[in-house]
Amino acid sequence: MDPGLRRRRARGRFLARLLDMLPSERVFHSADVRFGLIYAALFGISAAALAAFVWWSTAGLLLRQTEAAIDADVLGLTERYNEGGTAAVRDTIQQRLAANLDDDAIYMLVDPAFRPIAGNLDRWPSVPLDDDAFDLEIRRARGLSKVRVRHFDLPGGYQLLVGRDVEVRGQLRGMLQNALLWAAFIAVLLGTVGAWAVRGLFRATLAEISATAMAISAGDLTRRVRVTGQGEEFDLLAETINDMLDRISRLMDGVRQVSNAIAHDLRTPITRARTRLEDAALHATCEADLRAAIERATADLDGVVSVFQALLRIAEIEAGARRSAFVPFDAAPVLADLADLYCAVAEDGGLVLETDIAPEVQLFGDREMIQQAVANLLDNAIKFSPPGGVVRLAARQGPAGIEIGVADQGAGIPKADRARATQRFFRGETARSTPGSGLGLALVQAVATLHGGALALEDNDPGLRAVLRLPVQAERAALPPA
Amino acid sequence: MFAGRLILPAALAAGIGLGAAHAQHDSGPPPRMTSDTREYCDALAGRVAREQLSARNPAPEASALAQEGTQLCAEGRVAPGIVRLRRAWVILQAGD
Q1: Which residues in chain B are closer than 8 Å to A122, comparing Cβ atoms?
Q2: Cis omega (within 30 of 0) on the bond before A269?
Q3: Cα separation of A31 and A202, whole Å?
Q4: Domain map of chain A by residue range?
Q5: pLDDT tens for each residue of A226-239
Q6: Separation CA A293–CA A274 (nearest Å)
Q7: Is the CATH number of domain A74-165 3.30.750?
Q8: For A320-478, which CATH superfamily applies?
Q9: Which of A30, A100, A357, A430 has its CA 20 to 30 A from that of A480?
Q10: In 3D, which of A455, A454, A371 has the Cα closest to residue A413?
Q11: Cβ-count burial of A62 within 10 angstroms (0-12 exposed, 13-18 middle, 19+ buried)?
């Protein structure tokens, strides 16, 4: 191969490798690099501002002090010139030189031909007369020295120079400049290290969250983001994410539980109906037997349908679609009607239904839903009360809201079960032997939530007291959004 | 002849003017400070001595500083000599 071509190819490969080593555009679009760069920029700006302030308050101050001293000197000499002419200026200069303890004053008064009249320079320096202030070098006994001088034209062609030796201040300025340069180098170093650390911290934190999210998406719902316990913003984010994951987990458990409950609770009546129909098909000897079997199977299937209707009803209430139909109404007559209706049912069970309903109970909501919720509570109370017991329906309107309570003297619900008692299909140990679907209290809870209220289950000693607390009509604006 | 008499002073004047302008822009060695020399030290010692004589009641400290400064200058230690003479001057001025 041609050596020239080989060299060109080798150079091309080297350039390609060099380009690969450079950070790509994607790197700068990365959030961690961006945060690192922002940190470095803020650090650099802060360090520069600090250095500028230090410079202004030290070297700048020295320069300002020098200028102020020269100005004061010039003012005094001008006054002296106005009082006594050049002779007065000459005397003043000699006196000021004699009193110059810092040994830094420079004066030069010359006539129109630049012949020295007074001062401590051997000759007029080579300075442009157009400038008012400038720096120049002079020879002193200890060597060359830098001075800051101002030039003034006096009447009659006389020229005056007033200045200060700034050699020592210049050395100080140089030392400060060196110190600031070193400080800038250290700042760049620290800024780079800090930016790298910020980038790493950011990346590590996001990697933790990302790993948790990936594990959860892969099916491991037990994984949570690590909380350091330092109460920082990332901890707050981690806690929020963990709360969200807990809630998702609870919801999924609930869905799973409801699915299992539906399968379990509906399998029995459906199987029973199937068995009856099969038995009738195989063993019925007359039409009456067949009709009876079909009727019993229909009753079983009606139960299944009612469960589905209840589930759909709860879902509809939770969706909040009916909130637009809310109206203000007096619940007292509604509760009185319910009491009349359930009085007969209670008597059939050997119970007494007592009422304590306020003359007026103003509500803002859905009359039918409130009626159904209280009916469910009364139904439960009657169902779980022993014969001879008392069921009490009370309603009152207080400053905190409206309370509709249904109390019984049954077995009650253990405290440990009360939080779960309003979940769909929950059946306590004491309710296993009683017919029911476990959806009654779930519906009451949904109605209470829809109306911005709450359902509380309390001890009645003996028995249970279910209290439906609802906001008064004036608080309807505070209802949860649909 | 008359023209020659006119041209000469004009040329001289121009020469002086150029000399003056040159003095302003001369790029030779930097000017020398005269207030840190032995001559200045002697002149300052004389000024302080005259001020002492004219003062009604010169401070003993000023006299001591003046004497010390003059001696240092005489020994060739100009910088410390001038510092002492200046201190003496300031004290004498304050006494006045």
Answers
A1: 31-34
A2: no
A3: 9
A4: 74-165, 233-300, 320-478
A5: 888 877 787 888 88
A6: 10
A7: no
A8: Histidine kinase-like ATPase, C-terminal domain (3.30.565.10)
A9: A357
A10: A455
A11: middle
Instruction: Output the six-digit token pair for B69.
Output: 């400064």
CB A353 within 8 A of CB A342: yes
Residue A402: beta bridge partners? A397, A470
Residue for token digits 């191969």? Answer: A1
Give the ipTM: 0.74
Distance CA A74, CA A78 (A): 6
Using a CB–CB cut-off of 8 Å, the residues of B that contact A are 16, 20, 23-37, 40, 44, 47-48, 78-79, 82-83, 85-87, 89-90, 93
Burial class (CB in 10 A: 0-12, 13-18, 19+), A406: buried
Structure tokens, A453:
């209220």
Contact between A107 and A96 under an 8 Å Cβ cutoff? The reply is: yes
Collect contacts of A180-184 with beta carbons under 8 A, ≥24 apart: A180/A51, A180/A54, A180/A55, A183/A47, A183/A51, A184/A47, A184/A51
Three-state secondary structure readout of A179-213: HHHHHHHHHHHHHHHHHHHHHHHHHHHHHHHHHHH
Q: What distance in Å separates the CA atoms of residue A449 and residue A365, rounded to the nearest whole number?
A: 11
Q: Which of A479, A323, A464 is nearest to A401 (CA)?
A: A479
A246 CB-near residues (< 8 Å, 6+ apart): none
Chain B positions in Cβ-Cβ contact with residue A127 (cut-off 8 Å): 24
Q: Do B31 and A114 touch (CB under 8 A)?
A: no
d(CA B35, CA B41): 8
Structure tokens at B64: 């001591």
**Which positions of chain A have pLDDT values less than 70?**
1-5, 14-29, 129-131, 429-433, 473-482
pLDDT tens string B29-64: 889 999 999 999 999 999 999 999 988 888 899 999
